[in-house]
Amino acid sequence: MKYLAYFKPNKEISDLILRRDNIVLPKSGLHSTLCFFDMEPKHEQRLVSDLSNIEFYPFEIQTLGYENFDEDQLVLTLSRPDRLLGLHNNVVSTVQNYSDRTFDEIVKKYYRDNYNPHLAISKSSIGFNRNPGLIGQKYINSRYYLAKKIRQNWKEIQSFRSNR
Questions:
Q1: Which has the closest alpha carbon to 65: 117, 126, 114, 30?
Q2: How far, in whole angstroms, is CA 97 from its chain's centroid?
Q3: Do the bridges between strand 153-161 and strand 73-78 make them parallel or antiparallel, or are there none, so unpaired?
């Protein structure tokens, strides 16, 4: 089963994005991926327990620019503060205990030193006005989430809050 650990933009940034024309929201909604992986559902409760034990500090995120990703997906690139990188690395290390064998290749390609934080905002960039008003926005994040894909939809199964 597919799983996604991610964080969300704050309400102000979400509202700025959703007011734009030609937005085609990803099925997982507005989100920034910490870790995407496949795992047997039988490990879910243990993973949730282990993720709950990750201690992290709130971190400030800044939007940096627009970029097209896979299949014309439009994203806002984000800053890489040390606190975010620490959370990302801890989540990846925890997930490696439960994920399938393909995860190691994904880690080498997309995670750790190659982690490129971004906010997925639209499944298509066609007709989207890349107005600079979304660039340079800052917000503090103190929560992340775990979701799983059921049929074609993502279902949030747990949220994790900074305990610092």
A1: 117
A2: 20
A3: unpaired
Sequence-separated contacts (24+) of 92-96 with Cβ below 8 Å: 92/34, 92/35, 94/47, 94/50, 94/51, 94/54, 95/3, 95/5, 95/35, 95/37, 95/39, 95/47
pTM (global) more than 0.85 = yes
Output the six-digit token pair for 81: 């503060």
Sheet of 73-78: strand order equals 118-122, 73-78, 59-69, 138-141
CA distance 125 to 136: 20
Span 2-161: which CATH code? 3.90.1140.10
CA 60 from centre of chain: 15
Over its length of 164 residues, how does the chain's per-residue pLDDT go in tens digits?
A: 999 999 999 999 999 888 877 778 887 889 999 999 999 999 999 999 999 999 999 999 999 999 888 767 889 999 999 999 999 999 999 999 999 878 878 877 778 888 999 998 887 667 777 778 899 999 999 999 999 999 989 999 999 999 87
